[in-house]
Amino acid sequence: MKYNFHKSKLYQTLARVSEGSFARYLSFHLHQLFQKLNKYPNDIVIETASVCNLNCTICRSVKAELGRKNRFMSLAIFKKIIDDIAPICNTIGVSFCGEPLLNRDIFQIIRYASDRGMCVSMLTNGVLLNADARMGILDSGLNFMAISMDGATKHTYESIRIGGSFDTLVENIRLLVKERNQRKLPHPSIDLQMVITQKNIHEVDAFAKLARGLGVERAYLKSLHIDRSREDVDYVKNLEKDYFVNSTTLPARYMIDKKGNLELKDKGLCPQKVKTPVITTDGKVLPCCFDIFGEHVLGDIANQRFLDIWNSSKYINFRRNLAKHRRLPMCANCLPSDYKTINKILF
Ligand SMILES: C[S@@+](CC[C@H](N)C(=O)[O-])C[C@H]1O[C@@H](n2cnc3c(N)ncnc32)[C@H](O)[C@@H]1O
Ligand code: SF4
Ligand code: SF4
To answer: Which residues of 140-160 are buried (b: 16+ CB within 10 A; e: fewer)?
Structure first.
């Protein structure tokens, strides 16, 4: 695990040096230190789309009425956010409850943040990475891309990622890696990830082999999250019964208690130290990516500056009392405190 971390860091360093932007690399890390010292957010997730082209069996966000006013974040609001947060945070993600590649401004969105020295990452289902989208991504300055691939065969993948085409995805990834390498671009670094469930547990080795063959930088397994912050008996029961893997060797954030209920393995303090806010397509500021229903709105970027929201008594109270001590339903289900140990890096 450590090796992979260093490999990834080394990759970034070499990428930036070879790009002739070592000064930028140095300034990036000094900025991160500044963020830490000043207790600013570690990174900020900006939801660029709250709708999806797939309907994955494990994903709750597409099964719920999220109630967002805008399904896509506009370029104008995005620019306002970036201008606002640039002095205090230089790491952003552009995915939350939907598929970012559905936003027709996504490449300009990434370019805008990248031109302001931000490190930008994207989580995507990758299905829409056709020739135009690949060119858009490679021209955008995106630093990291993680592609969700919950199976190593057509049957398994398509029975979990409903609406996705395994063959199309594999070809998209193969061409993205090839075109990036042909253009000698240092990024995006490309990862493949699989949420481990009963449905794909037999394909772990095949997944690693497939990922290696595609030439991506990393492949890893993620643990299943079962959101129980709201009543939805069918969703929860289905995931508990047919998807959850009770394992000590594979990623699992829950264990089964004496009464047979799923419990987080360790319920210490907030794993993200309440320092990873989300801004939704309609500009609402949420405490973290587990608030998929947007129940804990701490401010609105449409009429407030980010730092005013971050320093408001509402946010301070949330950080101190609610999240830190896991007093909310979503906090009881999210991640163990030492969550970094539960993902398994395959290479
Ligand atoms: C909600 S998706 C949004 C980005 C994009 N649509 C995608 O699928 O990558 C973000 C990530 O959440 C993961 N995910 C969805 N449902 C999950 C669950 N129940 N447990 C763990 N991860 C889940 C997806 O596999 C994906 O990696
Ligand atoms: S592609 Fe992503 S957002 Fe869409 S349903 Fe699947 S996991 Fe959810
Ligand atoms: S759900 Fe609660 S404990 Fe978990 S990351 Fe979010 S704020 Fe922290």
So the answer is: bbbbbbbbbbbbbeeebbbeb
* 171: DSSP letter: H
Residues 6+ apart with CB under 8 A from 246: 252, 254, 255, 256
Closest CA to 163 of 52, 47, 65, 50: 52
Q: Can you give the pLDDT at residue 201?
A: 97
Ligand 2 proximal residues by C-beta, below 6 Å: 52, 54-56, 59, 61-62, 98-99, 125, 148
Residue 130: the pLDDT is: 98
Q: Where are the alpha helices (DSSP H) in 183-271?
A: 204-214, 233-238
pLDDT value of residue 260: 87
Residue 274 pLDDT level (bands cut at 50, 70, 90): confident
60, 63, 99: which to mutate for ligand 2, most atoms within 8 A of CB?
A: 99
pTM of the model: 0.90
